[in-house]
Design goal:
Keywords: Signal. This protein is mainly β. The chain has a domain of 92 residues. It is built from three helices and 30 strands. Strand 4 and strand 5 form a beta hairpin.
Length: 376
């Protein structure tokens, strides 16, 4: 009899702790609802950038004579084409790899695989929000013997930079920087700087962004037989480079996306196969503990975090389901996102609106928006 009474009491307690359908109960925070932004027909979003109070969207238009295109979305929500002029056959077929804006100045990297070895044929694009053109480069500027990759385009007070890799004089491929001489890009030597590889430390950049007068590069390095997330930082333009491993790096990891705002930077990546996020302030990096244990592999793409009222905000997919994770001094808040699905590949804040690109694959990506107030 006593056992039956105890069982009934337990059942009542369990029922009392379970939310009824449609009730609030102990459910987590409500999902964040995003609104799909319809692009002009045939446009698939790839990269995003803020241009003042406007959004720039780098898109693909497969089947057109010039595949890459740039769209400007004004404060009224209307899209207009930014005139685009290609200079090479590969430029006409390029996919956007990076898009950077400073005021009304635009800098972008495009790429399309081709040739006997199927390497990416890189293209550099410059201009303004009134028009952007590919600048013809000699083959050896980005290609040929010793060529590596281009990772990101960056504006600095000292001028525009392209960040990537190139064959090292010592071992492997150095982190490499190209600077502009008029319309020509010139690769600068990494020898004798923190960008140069050594037998003891091999660096692999994956993303870059502006931070004050300098640049912050995120990636990973192989040192002491261990793969560790790392950053490289310049004091001004392409000068004063230092390198550092990111802390609390577990057994293996990498930083794959980075963004800076208001004196701080956020880098997202993975450690031991799970999402990891670091905050870099005054040159010192801290891993933000308690991030949601979402599986992230070494081939998965991540969008850089954004700042929402002092809270580092990371959009990420967990098995195709998009979530938004926000960190402050008290820890993390994680909410489901209603609307987009698939990998989140680009995020940007424009004024009081956050935009993101998500999709299951390159051809199914779509553009979404949410008011920053909904993330507070």
């Amino acid at each position: 009899m006593r056992g039956r009474v105890l069982a009934v009491v337990v059942a009542v307690l369990v029922a009392g702790c379970t939310a009824a359908p449609g009730g609030t109960g102990s459910a987590g925070p409500a999902p964040v609802v995003l609104t799909k932004v319809e692009l002009p027909a045939g446009s698939v979003p790839v990269v995003l950038a803020a241009a003042g109070d406007a959004l720039l969207v780098g898109v693909r238009r497969d089947g057109q004579s010039v595949v890459p295109a740039l769209l400007r979305r004004g404060a009224d929500g209307a899209f207009t084409d930014v005139p685009l002029t290609a200079a090479t056959p590969y430029g006409m077929l390029a996919t956007w790899y990076s898009l950077a804006v400073d005021g009304d100045r635009v800098l972008a990297i495009g790429g399309e695989r081709g040739g006997a070895h199927g390497n990416v044929r890189w293209s550099a694009w410059t201009g303004t929000t009134a028009g952007v053109s590919e600048k013809l480069q000699g083959f050896s500027v980005f290609g040929g013997w010793g060529a590596g990759e281009l990772n990101d385009a960056v504006w600095t007070p000292a001028g525009p930079l392209l960040v990537g890799t190139w064959q090292s004089l010592k071992v492997g491929s150095d982190v490499a920087v190209w600077t502009a001489d008029g319309d020509t890009w010139v690769r600068q030597s990494s020898a004798g700087t923190a960008l140069e590889n050594t037998p003891e430390s091999l660096g692999f950049p994956l993303a870059a962004t502006t931070t004050g007068p300098g640049v912050l590069v995120a990636g990973w390095r192989l040192a002491g037989g261990k793969q560790e997330p790392a950053v490289w930082r310049s004091t001004s333009g392409n000068t004063g480079w230092t390198a550092a491993a990111l802390p609390d790096a577990g057994t293996t990891g990498a930083a794959v996306a980075v963004r800076c705002w208001d004196g701080a930077c956020g880098a997202s990546g993975w450690v031991d196969g799970k999402l990891a996020v670091w905050k870099v302030t005054d040159g010192a990096a801290t891993r933000l503990s308690g991030a949601p244990p979402i599986a992230v592999g070494d081939r998965d793409r991540l969008a850089a975090p954004v700042d929402v009222d002092g809270r580092l905000t990371q959009f990420v997919a967990d098995g195709g389901r998009v979530q938004v994770a926000q960190a402050d001094g008290a820890g993390w808040t994680v909410r489901d996102v209603s609307g987009p699905s698939g990998a989140v590949t680009a995020v940007v804040r424009v004024g009081d609106v956050v935009y993101l690109v998500a999709g299951a694959d390159d051809s199914s990506r779509t553009l979404w928006r949410v008011d920053a107030a909904a993330l507070r």
